[in-house]
Every structure is written in structure tokens, then in C-alpha cells.
Design brief:
alpha+beta; Zincin-like; 6-stranded mixed sheet; 3-stranded mixed sheet; 11 strands; elongated
Length: 320
């Protein structure tokens, strides 16, 4: 429901090997009953790559199979014209020194590790950090290439404070938070996502509900037909934490495919789609130090839905 959400990593003795901080582009309807506060950042501690030491511990049979598959893949690739990757990173000038200074300023334990800091063309404003042996690899979204030094220092403090469990001074991280929440940055994120985010849906026609037809009916009933139709579809996979979302970058509304089921009342699907249509009409905006996705005007229009109370009860039941 908010512009950003938080997934808190489980407590552990050592710093996580990988951390990811980012601003969600679209405020989803959460399945969890608790709503996070406005302006939270996304924290994803899950490893996305297998560590080399773990690969070395695999059984010989698996290793042989992987080598065989790798050889076949190389033969297939040799027949095709090589296309260089469009996602090229560039090193942040002075980034290693910047992180070492912030490491010392936060009072992190031990000697500062070796840092490798790059700009990377993520699809949104994302910061990542991971440790490999004695080197810590950091990636900043290339959206920060034109940011001031204070913003980069704030981003470094935000990452290191999460990894080493140190409380960063508010004055240190404030420049980055203000930069991330500014209307100018949000506009740049939307423009960037239009070119980097691929439409991810199975189309509006589901097995039981037609979202395109439903959109036209809701648009005529609640918006006098004035709302321009974005890309609409069902999610490729079932989601556990949200019913729907609107991404202003690719201008796309997605609904959880779990709702395309005969056991889900149509009024619940209509309400979720109506909620996301309101996000199209009322974009996320900044108010003070927070990002507001559900303004008073948004909430007032949301309650105009004919079966608002019933739809909410159904969603509360589905979320259990």
C-alpha cells in the first residue's frame, strides 16, 4: 500500500553477505495486515548467486553434468552472433576511499575491508553490497552519477549501518533520503524505468476474469471514461505479499494471478483493480520528509467503491 516496503532480515551473528536497498516504484496492496510506514526502504538479504566455496563442495557427478551442459551451451553460443551486454558498470571515482572513511566514522568493528564501488544500470534507485572473500563489492544505481558527494556519503552510511548494525547519524544519511524522495528524482526514476523495465504479465484475459473488460466498466462508472488505460495483466507468478500493484515507469497494472480463481468473488478483483486505477489518477508525491501514495483525496475516492466494506472483508480473509 505504500511507496516502499521493508523485509527485515533474520538476526544473525555475522553481517549478511548481500544486502539490497531500493525504492519500490509502485505501491502494492499488501497481503500482510500490517502496513509499513511511509518512506521505508526495501531490504532484501537473500543471496542471488551461489558462493564459489559452495560450488566446490558439490558432488563430482553434479560437477560433470554442469561441465557437460556448459560445453553444450558454448557450442550453441558459438553458432550465434555475439551480442555484448547492455548493462555495463562503471567504477565510482574515489568510491573505495569514501567507504573506508564512512566505515571508520560509523565505528565498525575491525579493519576496513577492500571496497570495489561501481555505478550499475539498475531499473530503479537501488543500492547493493556483498562480500566475496576479503573484498566488499558495492553497486550504486547509475541514477546517482550526477548526485553530490553528500548524497553518496549518505548512501554509503545507509548500507554500512545495515550490514554492520551501526546507527548512522541522521545528518549523514539525510542527504541521500532527501535525494531519493525528491520529486525530481522520482520523475527521473519513472523515465528510466520506461526504457529498462519489460512488461511482465500474461495479458488481461485470465481463466476466470477479463481485466480489460473490467477496466472499461470501472473507468466508465467511477472516472467518466477519462482515465487512459495503462498496460494491464495478471502476474506471471503468484505473489505472497500483495494483491496488485501499479508501476508508473512502464505504466503497468498487475494483479496477483492467485485472484484469477473461481473461489474469489468478482467484487474483490474489481476493488483491487479500482485501487490500482486510483494510483494512476493520484501518483505518489512528496509531503514533507515522506512519500505519500495514499493521499486524503485517494482515500476519499477509494471509499466511493460500491462494495468497499465487503471487498475489504474478502481481502482480509484471503490474506490469512
Amino acid at each position: 500500500m505504500n511507496a516502499a516496503r521493508e523485509l527485515t532480515p533474520a538476526k544473525q551473528a555475522a553481517p549478511p553477505l548481500q544486502l539490497r536497498l531500493g525504492m519500490d516504484a509502485a505501491p502494492p496492496i499488501q497481503l500482510a495486515p500490517r502496513e509499513p510506514s511511509e518512506g521505508e526502504v526495501l531490504v532484501d538479504p537473500e543471496l542471488r548467486r551461489t558462493h564459489p566455496a559452495r560450488r566446490a563442495a558439490l558432488s563430482p557427478d553434479i560437477s560433470i553434468l554442469r561441465r557437460t551442459a556448459r560445453g553444450n551451451a558454448k557450442k550453441t553460443a558459438a553458432k550465434k552472433k555475439h551480442k555484448p551486454s547492455r548493462r555495463m558498470s562503471s567504477q565510482v571515482s574515489g568510491g573505495a576511499v569514501l567507504f573506508q572513511r564512512v566505515f571508520t566514522r560509523l565505528g565498525c568493528d575491525g579493519r576496513p575491508p577492500r571496497f570495489r564501488v561501481d555505478f550499475y544500470p539498475y531499473a530503479s534507485l537501488v543500492l547493493t553490497i556483498r562480500r566475496r572473500e576479503d573484498v566488499v563489492f558495492v553497486r550504486f544505481s547509475d541514477l546517482l552519477q550526477r548526485a553530490s558527494l553528500a548524497v553518496l556519503v549518505g548512501a554509503a552510511a545507509l548500507l554500512l549501518s545495515r550490514v554492520y548494525r551501526r546507527k548512522a547519524p541522521r545528518a549523514l544519511v539525510e542527504p541521500y533520503l532527501n535525494y531519493a524522495r525528491s520529486n525530481r528524482t522520482r520523475s527521473r526514476i519513472s523515465r528510466m524505468r520506461r526504457g529498462r523495465v519489460r512488461l511482465a504479465s500474461t495479458g488481461p484475459q485470465g481463466r476466470h476474469f477479463d481485466l480489460e473488460k473490467m477496466f472499461e466498466q470501472l473507468n466508465e462508472k467511477y472516472f467518466s471514461g477519462s482515465l487512459e488505460r495503462p498496460h494491464i495483466g495478471w502476474s506471471m507468478r503468484s505473489w505472497r505479499r500483495q494483491f496488485g500493484c501499479y508501476d508508473p515507469g512502464p505504466n503497468q497494472i498487475l494483479l496477483n494471478r492467485r485472484m484469477d480463481h473461481p473461489g474469489v468473488p468478482q467484487v474483490a478483483v474489481e476493488y483491487v483493480l479500482y485501487h490500482e486505477m486510483l494510483h494512476v489518477k493520484h501518483p505518489t508525491r512528496r509531503s514533507g520528509c515522506s512519500l505519500v501514495s495514499h493521499s486524503p483525496e485517494f482515500r476519499a475516492e477509494e471509499k466511493l467503491f460500491a462494495d468497499f466494506a465487503r471487498a475489504r472483508r474478502i481481502l482480509d480473509h484471503l490474506a490469512r
